[in-house]
Known about the structure:
Blueprint: H1 3-19, E1 26-31, E2 34-40, H2 43-46, H3 53-65, E3 73-79, H4 83-92, E4 96-101, E5 126-128, H5 133-157, E6 165-166, E7 184-186, E8 197-202, E9 209-213, H6 227-232, E10 236-240, E11 250-251, H7 259-273, E12 278-282, H8 285-290, E13 301-306, H9 320-331, H10 337-344, H11 350-355, H12 367-375, H13 385-397, E14 402-408, H14 416-425, E15 433-435, H15 446-456
Parallel strand pairs: 3-4, 4-5, 9-10, 9-12, 12-13, 13-14, 14-15
Antiparallel strand pairs: 1-2, 1-3, 6-11, 7-8, 8-10
Helix pairs in contact: 1-5, 9-12
Amino acid sequence: MSDADLMQLALAQAGQAAAAGEVPVGAVVVRHGQVIATGRNAPIDGHDPTAHAEIQALRAAAQALGNYRLDDCELFVTLEPCAMCAGAMLHARLKRVVFGAADPKTGAAGSVVNLFANSSLNHQTELQGGVLAGECVAVLQDFFQKRRGDQRDAARAAHPLRDDALRTPDHAFDGLPGYPWQPNYISDLPSLDGLRMHYLDEGDDGRLTYLCLHGNPAWSYLYRKIIPVFLAAGHRVVAPDLIGFGKSDKPKKDSFHNFTIHRQHLRELVERLDLKNVVLVVQDWGGLLGLTLPMAEPHRYKGLLVMNTTLATGDVPLSAGFIAWREMCAKNPEFDIARLFARGNSQMSAEECAAYVAPFPGKGHRAALRAFPAMVPEFHDSPGADLSRQARDFWREQWQGQTLMAVGEQDPVLGPTVMRKLQAMIRGCPEPLVLPEAGHFVQEHGEEIAQAAVHFFKS
Length: 459
């Protein structure tokens, strides 16, 4: 039998593990071309942390041969062995180990460490990886995708709606162009007090985590052109919807919204998800709030991707463009969101513009849109102004990470003049990437920015 044929037998064992609710990893032990033992993951069923597929197969092979030494045996396993299993294989003195999918988090055959390459050990085992890797990866991906779906279904049932809030129906988000990701919800952060907050959480956390914060009147849909680039480069992306926006709950009263509560929501989310190696990605209110986060836990952050935004410190006048925007919102609180996006982004389709309206099917859902323009700290004692001044000092004097600035040149609210002032506040901020065709919502030209970020930030 060929290596591929034997890996297919291991995949059959992985399927049995999945059917039992275990992570689908399977293994077979072969001697002189004959299968003498099989094993599948069973730590949950057996309440045994050592019951990995490889260990199960090794135990069965040793019993079959009446000897714990398996010198002339080969082991085929669908996932790269961990350190425990690699150690057991070396103790068994296997002749050869063949695995399918690499394990970038715990793999001990080259991904994290390579125990098989240690020449100091008294036994050397031949190693080969990547046999039917695509099929082995697919089995794992299908399993975890289904499990996440089951968890999301349970989570939806676990987040009752508060009496003082509204929730946009799920069907409002059906078929949105360019937004295929599954939702995640959380409602037990202390500051949420039962409100349901939505966030995207895609990719693995083995490298960088891009924390993408939106502004008003946008939501995580704003990052749909940026997220795929980050994921393709092997990074994790977390993109929350602020309360009052997107798929998050929407308090009915404008008075719910204030600078401090929204900042606290974000701080607690970062802590709950234990985000590390974070590149903070901000624009508009994502920057007004997000730029105050790293000073509280600087060890979590190693990069900043900053687009059209500002720090409102209360001791510098707000820009004329912003004041005009605030006055427009006050006079026309039911402004047409789709038209706003279409006016500054001629490349967007009507369906894309309409997607920004999806979270707000009625007047009652728009409290955040009405409240946010007036929340920007304008005076020295405005809520959030003191935090913003502290953040300014942090960025000037203490920031140790890398910074990439991207500027939409056509933005009349937070355009080049405002961004040059922000650049001067950020220690080590190089010359910005200027996008001549982009307006306020820079992420609508996101592929270029994301590609630049992938090359700029080092994991």
